[in-house]
Amino acid sequence: MVISPELTRFIAGLPKAELHVHHIGAASPRIVAELAARYEGATAVPADPALVEAFYDFRDFAHFLRVYAQVVDLLRTPEDLWTLIHGVGGDLAAQRVRYAELTITPQPHLTRGFAPEEFCEVIEDARRRVEADYGTILRWCFDIPGVPGPPADQTLSIALDQRPDGLVSLGLGGPEAGVSRSHFAPHFAAARAAGLHCVPHSGEVTDAGYVWQAIRDLGAERIGHGIRSVEDPALLEHLAEHRITLEICPTSNVCTRAVPSLAEHPLPALVEAGVPITVNSDDPPMFGTDLNREYAVAAELLSLGEKGVADLARAAVEASFLGAEGKSALLAEIDAYVAQNSSAPPG
Ligand code: ADE
Ligand code: ZN
Questions:
Q1: How far is CA 320 from the centre of its chain?
Q2: pLDDT of residue 274 exceeding 70
Q3: Which among 18, 124, 204, 294 is annotated as catalytic?
């Protein structure tokens, strides 16, 4: 990466909103190793942070999902879950993330014995403690793990029956190829009717047709990744016209082999087409990155300076599900930071 040390510092201090990050995928190797040590002998996940990093060398998207499931399996008690979320909150705060919509997939935890009430109590307690300890506001996106039938039904049920205070949206992740987004239309319709926002993954490793499905069948307001939209000019026009934001996670796409290299990432073409985008980290330690690094990658791909990266931060606030007051407060923080830290002469 060739961005200047000044721009790197500017990004590090810039107040930011993170809209696409998964709770399991955001856990630091230190916390994952600590959890693995609790279950040594009963897990293939290494109990040493350096070995955890090596464990995260993905052959392809399917291999990534298999490794991911092994880390999910380390969360067996309320304390495991609380420790992970509180740690993720601290790591986000350390990158000046002031607001994050954390994608959390309840279903595998329910399968491993958490009762829905208990699950929601633990994550809500951790969310409040993160805000009290670090000042970072967390909100939840409850994510269907890409499987129609009971896993999708259970995700919708816990969302609507428990309706924790921090919940703002319903998501859809996991495997995508061959899993039509349309299977999940009734779930998203019910979520919308209950006032939740809709943010499915789509067009990450599949084609633009899946993005159309997410828009038409699920009422997607933002789309996780959506990078394959670049193949369909009519879709690009639709995304631009209807201001449907793509949550772009550049390094993730290289690590899961969704794109061959950063240099070939479609981010510049999407921006060129007028599509609203945000920059996000997805599963940062799993991909050897963090949000600041993703901003640096975007700055390089889009040839941005301080003003450009501040605009990326503003775009994330605008596309977030924060209320109007929260948005104004965070935008004002960004403006104040820019005014105090810009290296460019005023005027
Ligand atoms: N779960 C965690 N990360 C994911 C990704 N990049 N795509 C789909 N599901 C996921
Ligand atoms: Zn994701």
A1: 12
A2: yes
A3: 204
Structure tokens of 94? 């350390």
Place of tokens 């829905």: 116
187: its two tokens: 């779930």
Q: How many other C-beta atoms lie within 10 A of the C-beta of residue 54?
A: 10
Nearest-atom number in ligand 1 for the CA of 105 is 1
Q: Which residue has the tokens 């005023």?
A: 346
Tokens of 130: 């993160």
CATH superfamily entry for domain 5-340 = Metal-dependent hydrolases (3.20.20.140)
Helix axes 208-218, 185-193, angle to 10 degrees: 40
pLDDT digits (tens, 9 = 90+) for 119-158: 999 999 999 999 999 999 999 999 999 999 999 999 999 9
- Domain positions in the chain: 5-340
The residue whose CA is least distant from atom 6 of ligand 1 is 282
pTM for the full model? 0.96
22 lines ligand 1 (CB under 6 A): yes
